[in-house]
Amino acid sequence: MKQLPLLSLFAMFWLAQGMQAQGGLPLPFSTDFDSGIQEWEVSSTGGAEWIPSTMFGVNGSGSVIVDKGGESDPSNGWLITPALDMTTAKNPVLEFTTALVTNNFLAPVISLWYDDGSGWKKFDNWGVNEFYANNVVEGSHNYVRLLNPENVQLNKVSVDLSSFAEEKNIRFYFSADMLNGGWVIVDDVSFSSASTSSVAENIPTTPRHFPNPVKDILSFESDQSVESLVVYDLLGRSILEVDIEGGSTTAVDLSTLPPGEYWLQTRDGENVQVGQFSIFKE
Length: 282
Hints:
Order of helices and strands: HEEEEEEEEEEEEEEEEEEEEEE
Structural class: mainly beta
Low-confidence stretches: 1-21, 195-205
Largest sheet: 7 strands, mixed
Number of strands: 22
């Protein structure tokens, strides 16, 4: 078995420690890929690369796809989320839409993996039959090199992530497991709170905020009392926390932040998330 150099092992250790020390992006976190891959990361073996597409998503919208329609060799493509803070949602759940299209004998499989700071581990997978996957979804076939949108069967999948409810910094990735060529499509990915019939459920809302983009002072109004505001960058790092005197209306000085996009999260007196929104700092 090939061994990693000692320096690489130390680098992986310190990277894992750094992940544990920082917090991830608050939930809900969702991507429809209409604007491309955005803050996701991609990696692959054997050319199974995730790329944006404008043809095969839900209602013909954007999506991401691994295209191995002209090949039959085994390969893998990884679509990796930013770090996420699962403690900001009640009963966290993952929902996504996927298509598994066969062009040879064996259909591809899509797997879900996670890394809580101790290395990547497999959580579950989906395929067109029970011999290769834990969960069966409807597949389709396309026996020519170019994929015909009419041959794409989309499946909506829901995954209970309550076992990760205490994780403040965790990443997930979708693995397109190409056993014998074909295509894998993913669209409309959402990490959020599970739906509930309880009218008393405290569901975070988006505070009214202005201006956006902002140069220095950001004002916002909330339907709930707010005690603190936390600012995250797109890597999920908490870079600013502001204590607020309570109430539903306030102004926050963001003049010290470098230009760029940020996530802002509002919390009540018990440090429970009551809202979140994104802003662009000029």
